[in-house]
Amino acid sequence: MANQYKGCCVSINCVDGSVVQGEVSGMSDDNETLILKRPFKNGIPHTEKEIRLKASMIENLKIIKAQLENEPVINNSPVTKNNKKSVSVPKTNNKQKNKAKNTSISEPEQLPQNFTNHKERNDACFGVSLDTIVKEDFDFEKNLALFNKKAFYNKIHKKPDLVPHEKVSTKYKHNENVLHSTPVKFRQVTVPSPAINEYITDDGLVVPSITSELRWKLFNLVEENGLTTGRQNEIIGRAATEMVLQLLGGGYRFNPRNEHQWPRVVVLCGPNRSGAMGVNCARQLSSYGVHTVVVLSEPGLYTPQLANEMALYQFTTGTLITSAAELHGLLDPDFVVVSLADEQTDTVSRNITNWAKSVRSPLMAIDPPSQGTPSVVVKYSLVPALPLSYSESNGKIYLCNMGIPTQVFHLAGIQYKSPFGSKSVIPLHNNE
């Protein structure tokens, strides 16, 4: 029997559930023990070169490779994840297990029943002969030559052919776009006699500046058609109030829990249209709980507009200063509104302008002259309807929607379509 099956590769399902493969090298003298060399257990080479399996441990056996006449070869390489296949373990009942345990393999003719020769080759377990692979020398230089690293890197790092262009050495600020893209410009407003400057909105709409004469013509037509000066002051006063509230911190600052940090705003007012707008803004700021201080540059001189606004302001909790000497007692406020001058104003009280230049608070002008408030440089300027050609001393220009009907613009010779969109105040930029 030993000579008949010696050299055969077998796969054995053991009673304990393990799978053993190997080459039959012989049987024990009592024919109860099978001897395997080059054994594998569960697809892994066994630590021993030769193992012995008793017949009672064998549940099923099949021959996976018959003996080769010339050179029997068994692959000793371990089964990996890529070449491992599941081994089917036939289910047996207890009677079959007991039968396998009691089976004697003493006679050769009984072997075909327990060691069924299916002549199958389990490639997943054994694969190609290890001896054949070992005999072949691996040519490292030949295989390395197949990978030309230099050519590969040149291919992946090749720069695209670009059209040569003139290099621009412009330096950009942190808030400027590096790409040379300009917004689309639309002209929705045209005037008969534009001034020098021209402005553009964030949406790319061109807003021309107008002359002082055209502006007075427009405001006179507005007042004649029902939008009185008092109503105009209320509109721009409201816009100025909202700007100041936002510049002071908006909802973060104006929180009922922050009463100890409530801001203080000083409003510098002259005896003119701009001064009346400033007092109106102070009254509306006071309604939000802001501590307001109105300073009159010429206390003895009141225009009708200014007198009407002062009559309402006296009912607020705000403070009124009529003497320049009292300015020295004012520490730096949170914000300063400048409403001192209009186009007809030549000079402003030196004490007030000196104080305005000494404070570290941000300054915002309401409807200032085109050349700026004399001796005062502001950070922001809020202007009504259409802008004049403003100087740099007026800071950043914000345009207020005064609610003027389109037909009134047409009466003044202005072709007008609103540039405001959904907003009541928009920033303007110099259209260079």
TrEMBL record:
InterPro entries tied to this protein: DFDF, FDF_dom, Lsm14-like_N, YjeF_N_dom, YjeF_N_dom_sf
GO BP: deadenylation-independent decapping of nuclear-transcribed mRNA; P-body assembly
Ranges annotated as biased composition (Polar residues): 74-90, 104-116
The keyword Magnesium appears for this protein: no
Family affiliation: Belongs to the EDC3 family.
Cell compartments where the protein resides: Cytoplasm, P-body
YjeF N-terminal domain residues: 214-410
SUPFAM superfamilies documented for this protein: YjeF N-terminal domain-like
Domain of life, source organism: Eukaryota
This protein's GO CC annotations: P-body
UniProt xrefs under Gene3D superfamilies: 2.30.30.100, YjeF N-terminal domain
Residues annotated as transmembrane: none
PROSITE patterns assigned: DFDF, YJEF_N
Sample GO molecular function, one term: mRNA binding
Acetylation among keywords: no
Keyword field: Cytoplasm
PANTHER family linked: ENHANCER OF MRNA-DECAPPING PROTEIN 3 (PTHR13612)
Listed Pfam families: FDF, YjeF_N
Region Disordered: start-end pairs: 74-118
Domain DFDF: residue ranges: 126-162
Protein name: Enhancer of mRNA-decapping protein 3
